[in-house]
């Protein structure tokens, strides 16, 4: 058994449901963007912390080597001070060899210190670079937050307006139609309806029978057997 509905009513209701779905998507998109950009800020902050930590560790290495160099130099000075006190040539020579060996060791240390300092210099720029990244990410976040603040009210007002219009339009649905309509809308929202598209269901593209098509044309309520959508004729193919 089929029931006729006013021409274009389902089309109008479907349009309103699509508008509501679109508005719901817009309302969800703002907070989603805020969340995504918050994560970008956090990632940039973590990057800066890691960069600062790398610099700190490199400084510790350089400081340790500088301390080693200082004590090595003190040791050499001490040995050199003892040279004059040597009583035998042999003793003198041994001490000289020791000083020479220690000097070689300090040369290696000096090279290592130079390398460590160069490493610090190479690492340092990544800290301000990460800071710039944080600033850029914060700016994007602030923009997303401002957009949510400025648009949420308008979008919610739009939702309320269309819901009001929808409730008025739904009053024109007959009782049995209303039951089917309420069921599909509850289950599928805007996807509960579809326009006929060239002899097929515009939702799932299942071919419709001739009887179904003529029923739709007569404004009867037809439900797609494949996807369960309520079907209606598109605007271009009706005179309404
Ligand atoms: Zn279908």
What would you say this structure looks like, in words?
- With 240 residues, this protein is mainly alpha-helical.
- 74% of the residues lie in helices and 5% in strands.
- The chain is built from 5 helices and 4 strands.
- It has a 4-stranded mixed sheet.
- α1 runs antiparallel to α2 (89-123).
- The protein binds zinc ion (ZN).
Question: In CATH, what is the class of the largest domain?
Answer: Mainly Alpha
Say what the CATH topology of the largest domain is. Helix Hairpins
Helix content: over 70%
- Kindly name the structural category: mainly alpha
* Share in β-strands: 5-15%
Uncertain segments are none
Please give the count of helices. 5
Average pLDDT confidence is: 93
Inertia-based shape: rod-shaped
CATH architecture of the largest domain: Orthogonal Bundle
**End-to-end distance:** 24 Å
SS elements, strand count? 4
